[in-house]
Amino acid sequence: MPQHVQTITVDSGFGVTTHNLFLYHDEPRTNRLLVLLPGRGYTTEHPLLYYLRKLGFERGYDVLSVEYGFQVNNTDLMPENIAYLQQDVADAVAPVFERGYEHICITGKSLGTPLAAELARKNATDGVSLIQLTPIGGAMHGLGDIRTLAVIGTADSLYSPEIVEAFRESPTVRWRVFEGLNHSLEYEGDWEKSLDSLREIMTICAEFLAACHE
């Protein structure tokens, strides 16, 4: 499958230039886009997002992997700099959204989940969907009719059975809870089981992506 690579540079408010990897298909152009928003220390080169990028592209999606300025600058993210983070995302996705995709799936990991939710709400159409990997804070609130897959493990300190239960009757939000997985969606001290869970999570994501563009 022909693959084209473009780097979308953004002058970040954190005082650096970010380099956002955009993979896109040869002609005919696809009408599907997958956006990957990483966590604080979990970049798009970590297993979940790395393999989701490969999966998405192989399933016919163009894929944008976003980089944050504070990560490039090797500094901590402070509350007063959240606006810079939000602008990093907005500036990275703007030229890609201009291509006019019919189906857009926005994926967030941890810190990226509220950013993904915000981006989905701002661009909400029938073709916009969400994958929320270990959602934090209010990342699952106010999603309306946006189709959403949320994945978390019971060994994650942010796991809340009450929040999962609150969406039990939702027609658009689907939770997948894994017993024993931590915030990295791995089994602490067991790489073999961690790889098994990675494969299962990727399969779930593949099924969700397929359903979103039926």
Helix proportion: 25-40%
N-C termini distance: 21 Å
CATH superfamily: Alpha/Beta hydrolase fold, catalytic domain
In N-to-C order, the SSE pattern is EEEHEHHEHEEHEH
CATH class: Alpha Beta
What is the arithmetic mean of pLDDT? 94
Walk me through this protein's architecture.
By secondary structure, the chain is an alpha/beta fold. It has a single domain (3-212), classed as Rossmann fold (3-Layer(aba) Sandwich), CATH 3.40.50.1820. It has an eight-stranded mixed beta sheet with strand order 1-2-4-3-5-6-7-8, with helices on both faces. It has helices at 47-58, 69-72, 82-97, 112-122, 161-166, 191-212, and strands at residues 3-11, 17-25, 32-37, 62-65, 103-109, 128-133, 147-153, 173-178.
List the keywords.
single chain, 214 residues, alpha/beta, Rossmann fold, eight-stranded mixed beta sheet, 6 helices, 8 strands, 33% helix, globular
Which helices and strands occur, and which strands form pairs?
Blueprint: E1 3-11, E2 17-25, E3 32-37, H1 47-58, E4 62-65, H2 69-72, H3 82-97, E5 103-109, H4 112-122, E6 128-133, E7 147-153, H5 161-166, E8 173-178, H6 191-212
Parallel strand pairs: 3-4, 3-5, 5-6, 6-7, 7-8
Antiparallel strand pairs: 1-2, 2-4
